[in-house]
Write a structure and sequence with these properties.
Layout: E1 2-14, E2 20-26, E3 30-36, H1 45-49, E4 56-62, E5 69-79, H2 88-104, H3 112-127, H4 135-147, E6 161-163, E7 168-170, H5 182-192, H6 206-223, H7 236-239
Parallel strand pairs: 3-5
Antiparallel strand pairs: 1-2, 1-4, 2-3, 4-5, 6-7
Helix pairs in contact: 2-3, 2-4, 3-4, 4-6, 5-6
């Protein structure tokens, strides 16, 4: 059957001289793989540009339930990025978001609210006037609301340490390996009470912020079996220095 849906391009791989295989996160059916013919020619440069990771699409495609590869009849941009391609920080954020989303999904896993969150975050990143240097951490946290392991909001004087395994703040006794320290946990608590795209009122040095990022990626890996080898976050060490 033919379907019309929005999509977010996750990855594109060359298949032949003129074709590609694209992994696209679709609103209606989750992550799917598509064979797209004739886009790697001199006459199809504009079409090929639409298949860059992070592009927001409107798609018309043939879906066959038992097929691994589906065929797109037509596609166009659903949102034309105005600032992301020209802003190094925003481009780094987009690359990171796409890599996180790619590693968090399973094929054919439908969740329209989750899709809406990702789609809206990318569009808002493009519209935002100032890049919030904590936004990648906020995205990681608020995306977990849709993935099913949002941290418990129980931070207190008696529970000042975050346990990555349980997703709860605790007293820190026992020195378990999957824990944030007190400074990192305080930053995490402040982020949990923030709003994406609004800079949180957090005073911490770059090393603590980087540690929180690494611990949050560890948090994802503990709760999503397929979540491994995220690399794009290393760029933050230079562009957000």
């Amino acid at each position: 059957m033919f379907l019309k849906t929005r999509g977010v391009v996750l990855q594109t791989i060359k298949h032949s001289e003129t074709s590609v295989i694209a992994r696209i996160y679709t609103e209606q059916l989750g992550r799917l793989s598509f064979m797209i013919n004739g886009v790697r020619t001199s006459k199809s440069v504009s079409k090929a540009a639409m298949l860059q990771p992070g592009t927001l699409l409107e798609m018309d495609f043939l879906y066959q339930e038992n097929k691994k590869l589906h065929y797109i009849k037509d596609f166009k941009r659903a949102h034309v990025y105005q600032s992301i391609p020209f802003d190094t920080r925003k481009s780094a954020m987009l690359m990171f978001i796409i890599e996180v989303v790619s590693h968090s999904l399973h094929d054919h896993e439908e969740n329209e609210e989750q899709f809406e969150f990702v789609y809206d975050q990318l569009a808002e990143l493009d519209r935002s006037l100032v890049v919030n240097a904590f936004y990648h951490l906020q995205f990681l946290l608020f995306f977990t609301q849709h993935l099913g392991f949002f941290p418990t909001l129980n931070y207190s004087e008696h529970n000042p340490v975050f346990d990555l395994q349980s997703g709860h703040f605790c007293n820190g006794n026992g020195a378990l390996p999957n824990m944030m320290n007190a400074s990192e946990s305080a930053v995490l608590n402040a982020l949990l009470h923030s709003t994406p795209f609004e800079k949180p009122n957090i005073a911490c040095d770059r090393q603590v912020k980087n540690n929180v990022l690494e611990k949050l990626l560890q948090y994802y890996a503990l709760h999503i079996d397929s979540f491994r080898n995220i690399q794009s976050h290393h760029i933050f060490e230079s562009v957000f220095a």
